[in-house]
Amino acid sequence: MDVPKEQITALLDNALFNSAQLLGSFLVSSSTVNAETSPHLKAENLVLLGDALFREREYRRAIHTYKQALQYYKIIPKQNSTSSRSALSASNRSSSPNSFNICAINENEMEGIPSKARNLQMSLLMAKLYRNTKHTRGAVTCYRECLRQCPYVIEAIIALAELGASAKDIISLFPQTPNRGGRAQLDHGDSSRWLQRYVEAQCCIASNDYKGGLELLAELLQRFPNNTHILLEMAKVEAIIGKNDEAIMNFEKVRSVDPYVVTCMDEYAMLLKMKSDYSKLNKLVHDLLSIDPTRPEVFVALSVLWERKDERGALSYAEKSIKIDERHIPGYLMKGNLLLALKRPESAVMAFRGAQELRADLRSYQGLVHSYLAFSKVKEALYAAREAMKAMPQSAKALKLVGDVHASNSGGREKAKKFYESALRLEPGYLGAALALAELHVIEGRNGDAVSLLERYLKDWADDSLHVKLAQVFAATNMLQDSLSHYQSALRINPQNEAAKKGLERLEKQMKGVDPDAPEEEENEVDDADAEQEEAELL
């Protein structure tokens, strides 16, 4: 069997509910299990996952999973019903009496317990305490001890990868043979390979090798179709590297498999906002509030929804998400972007630094660079951009970031051009670099070069921002009809595109021979008085 059920039971008995439910998701989505297993065993597996979700306090997901188990239970032949009932009730056992006492033990008391005397639950809790207090060495030691005791503590695998451990180092911790301590054994057969692949995928993602990570996750998905955890991991990476359509598709697949998943749904909300899909965003936030209004993801999603109406209100939601969970990265990213929009770049730097300390990825680097540039700290912006390039040497987006810093001053435009061109050589389909290079051409008066560059992308990209940029270039060269056509194309793709709306407004003035930058004529006092009288009547 791909996933040993006794390991999920052991994780539950040790109150490692998060790892238990992650491992349970592999159990119920395994292609081997689904092809060969009887309804009786499928029901058992689902109940085991339901138990883990219930103890993790994901109650709506637990109910959804138990209902699926009941559907299989209904098709079990009657002669098996007695044994299946006893199996189901056995798996729905309560946790061991000692499992909740650990919360009462403080860090100093736990440090006094010799490492050999600590059980699995103590080791994981110590690891988390060390990590939260930035004692990295202690955290690594305790996470390693967890995997020596049980290779299926998924939380420990992810944490060690994020703390810089190599895949080889993590896999070497897995116990290979049974021992007197009754520790979990990992066999050398086919069933252990998926776990090793999973370790490799997490290490790739943690080291910013997003392409390698995605390939490994896609390979795992073939073995575990519709696995919500793998789909979420893929969607998160795709969102980071700008594969927004693929990320949205994977988030939607997760919601079709389990409509009560809250994990990472704030990331999905951000993508819907970028697509200006407000009807889906509204529905998502409504669903999340009905599932569990106490989760940080819900407050980030609320922040995303409110950003268009009230940026300060949105900021308070983002801050609330961080108060609920100080390690929730999307909360910091959302806070940073809102502070930047509110023209508070110094505070935005602090928020992006907070995200970076937890897990440095492309988005926190982008936020830092744009924040520093917003208050003319070019040296700091360049340092952050170069850090991103060192961390992600094969990333076109990191190269573009360095280009953005050089483009911010007239003396660096030639360097910026080289970085944008390098980014496009590395990733020819990277629209962000093409738009930035086109903008550079326009600034330096090479409008023809900008148009020819952007028109090359029109063949493959139906993107509103591409049409807006072309419209702006045509408007600047007084080709007003072409500009109009591209603004209209942009609004057909995305009716909510603010840049297209404002550009079209300006263009209409230009076409009427009116200076678009001239101040609006103020209405006279008589009109204002009439309006006030009308308002009073309406009231």
UniProtKB/TrEMBL annotation:
Keyword NADP found: no
One Gene Ontology biological process: protein ubiquitination
Comp. bias regions, Basic and acidic residues: 499-515
Xref: Gene3D superfamilies: Tetratricopeptide repeat domain
Region (Disordered): 499-539
Intervals holding TPR repeats: 464-497
UniProt keywords, alphabetically: TPR repeat
Transmembrane parts of this sequence: none
GO cellular component terms listed in the entry, alphabetical order: anaphase-promoting complex
Listed SMART domains: TPR
Pfam families linked to this entry: TPR_19, TPR_8
Bias (Acidic residues): 517-539
Name listed for the protein in its UniProt record: Anaphase-promoting complex subunit 7 isoform X2
Organism: Gossypium hirsutum
Lineage: Eukaryota, Viridiplantae, Streptophyta, Embryophyta, Tracheophyta
